[in-house]
Amino acid sequence: MTVIAVVSAGLSQPSSTRLLADRLAEAAGRHLAGAEIRVVELRGLAVDIANNLVTGFPSPALKEALETVERADGLIAVTPIFTASYSGLFKSFFDVLDNTALQGTPVLIAATGGTARHSLALEHALRPMFTYLRAVVVPTAVYAASEDWGATSGDGLASRVDRAAGELAALLSRTPRKRPAEAPLIPFEQQLAALRPFTTG
Amino acid sequence: MQFGIFTVGDVTTDPTNGATPTEAERIKAMVTIALKAEEVGLDVFATGEHHNPPFVPSSPTTMLGYIAARTDRLILSTSTTLITTNDPVKIAEDYAMLQHLADGRVDLMMGRGNTGPVYPWFGQDIRNGIALAIENYALVHRLWREDVVDWEGNFRTPLQGFTSTPRPLDGVPPFVWHGSIRSPEIAEQAAYYGDGFFANNIFWPKEHFMRLIELYRQRYAHYGHGTPEQAIVGLGGQVFMRKNSQDAVREFRPYFDKAPVYGNGPSLEDFTEQTPLTVGSPQEVIDRTLTFRESFGDYQRQLFLMDHAGLPLKTVLEQLDLLGEEVVPVLRKEFAARRAEGVAEAPTHAARVAARDAALVAN
Predict the structure, then answer these.
(1) Hey, are the CB atoms on B266 and A57 less than 8 Å from each other?
(2) Mean pLDDT score of chain A, rounded to an integer?
(3) HSE-CB of B45 using CA atoms within 13 angstroms
(4) Are A35 and A29 a contacting pair, CB within 8 Å?
């Protein structure tokens, strides 16, 4: 079964970031029948994330959240835009995630904000971050400003959500399911041989 | 099984009174702590090696040589010797010299070091950390075992007809541990040579180290040094004790809260639950330490971190009294009673000379 992790970095309760995350998850589920959705709310993990930055290891609850993301076949990542970029909490979560965890993973990026003027933060901040992590980011990034929650027109939020979710589903349908990653063991002779200077022998 | 202490050698302000020891005071305190370790019946004293403030021990063999002259029984070791940024020729020479002066009471733990700028200060690049550890140790290993070495590598000047002096005491090099907190490559290296593997487990949850040690044990057997259970494992530990558990918690908390490694992070309660840190009565320390065997199997060396985070010398010496009088004697007995058949003894020079002689007779 395909598993999609949803990471929501909204801070208020209820949160428009979580609302957008749920809409995206629901749309992805429609495009990919049978997909299992697992939501990770970062708000409850804020202290654990800060502690991980300090100690270098995650608490049991954070470990579970990190593993949910690592093991998922696809990811929907949603953040509020703060000070022209993703929130610090959102970034810190991906800072403590292993930097190989999302290699080749299809990712849908989305954000919320008070005004549509911040929408390109998705392209200038989130997309390069996930590119660095070697994730495969779907072409449509979804931004929801306050005004979008009341809009009804053709190219409104609902159609962007649907288009992005469709792109994620299409990518997932041709991406092999993830298997638990085992770090390959390099035999010692091979490690030594890799170091032989070219000038000898 | 060997019990001892390892020190980082940090100069840290005591958060309870703002007092900061001078470098001279800290260096002398480290020596006092080492002498105390022998006095209370511990087996091993290991010092860190650092090349940046607030740490003082940049020259471990100088310190260990001085301690060797003032002790009779204590094994002198390192935690760790920087195999990446030291010249491997100098490591081979320095520790062979120390081995002679200490009548064989020397072993060392190789580590990579994780302070970025130290690498360029010594002409290296942290991105080559693993490669440096592998190539440099391969050279140290040969210098201690071959009288005349021709050698060429990637990271230091080639050698033609080089003899490292003095030759190891009795022709038997110091025992080597390889320390790592995250790299399977180092567990593999330790296994390949049949050397010891030291997992400094004190700052992280045990599951991580269970995987590394299991890998080391399997590969130790793969390379024909014995069964997985016979592999030679060392572990860290971190404790603070008072007769009454609550007194220990109350006294240690301000040090914990400001400790350089994990301070201003999780609570003392969370950290003691998630890592081996034990703050409580001697009996609690005994109980916790015995669980290490359940997680990692029978092991050969247990080193405790006792003098850090600004704890005053007087307090550290009191801790060593408790460790030597109330904890280690019980641990010796309990570990011995639980130990499986055929598990290796902890390495000593005398035993290694005897094993070498026995092998010579057999051949």
Answers:
(1) no
(2) 92
(3) 30
(4) yes
Q: If you classify domain A3-193 with CATH, what class do you get? A: alpha beta
Minimal Cβ distance to A55: which of B184, B219, B265: B265
Q: Which residue on chain A is closest to B265 by alpha carbon?
A: A51
- What 3-state DSSP class applies to A92? helix
Length of chain B: 363
Residue B346, SS3 per DSSP: coil
Query: What one-character DSSP code corresponds to residue B174?
Result: P
Write out chain A residues lying below 8 Å of B185, CB-based: 186, 191
Return d(Cα B320, Cα B34) in angstroms, integer: 10
- Phi then psi dihedrals of residue B239, to 5 deg: -140, 155
What b/e sequence results for B218-236 when a residue is b if at least 16 CB atoms lie within 10 Å of its CB, and e otherwise?
A: ebbbeeebbebbbbbbbbb
Average pLDDT, chain B: 96
Q: Span B151-164, mean pLDDT?
A: 97
Residues 267-306 of B with CB under 8 A from A: 270-271, 274-275
Contact yes or no for B211/B182 (Cβ under 8 A): no
Tens-place pLDDT, residues B324-351: 999 999 999 999 999 999 999 999 999 9
Q: Contact at 8 Å (CB) between B300 and B235?
A: no
* Interface subset of A 118-177, CB within 8 angstroms of B: none
Q: Which of A154-163, A183-192, B87-96, B227-236 has the lowest mean pLDDT?
A: A183-192
The topology under which CATH files domain B2-362 is TIM Barrel (3.20.20)
Question: Tell me, what amino acid is at A175?
Answer: T
Rounded to whole angstroms, the Cα distance separating B10 from B308 reads: 7
| Nearest-CA distance A92 → chain B (Å) | 15
- DSSP of B17-35: T-----HHHHHHHHHHHHH
Residue of A45, A49, A55 to mutate when probing chain B, most B C-beta within 10 A: A55
Phi then psi for A124, rounded to 5 degrees? -95, -20
Q: Is A197 close to B262, i.e. CB distance below 8 A? A: no
Beta-bridged to residue B10, according to DSSP, are: B55
For an interface test with B, the pick among A188, A190, A196, A200 (most B C-beta atoms closer than 10 Å) comes out as: A188
Cross-chain Cβ contact A185/B208 below 8 Å: no
Q: Mark yes or no for CB contact B265/A54 under 8 Å.
A: yes
Q: Which of A185, A186, A192 sits opposite B138 (nearest CB)?
A: A192
Q: How far apart are the first and last CA of chain A?
A: 53
**Under an 8 A CB cutoff, do A185 and B270 touch?**
no
Q: Where are the domains of chain A?
A: 3-193
B56 Cβ contact list (under 8 Å, min separation 6): B9, B11, B23, B26, B27, B30, B50
Going A122 to A123 to A129 to A131, the CA torsion angle's sign is: positive
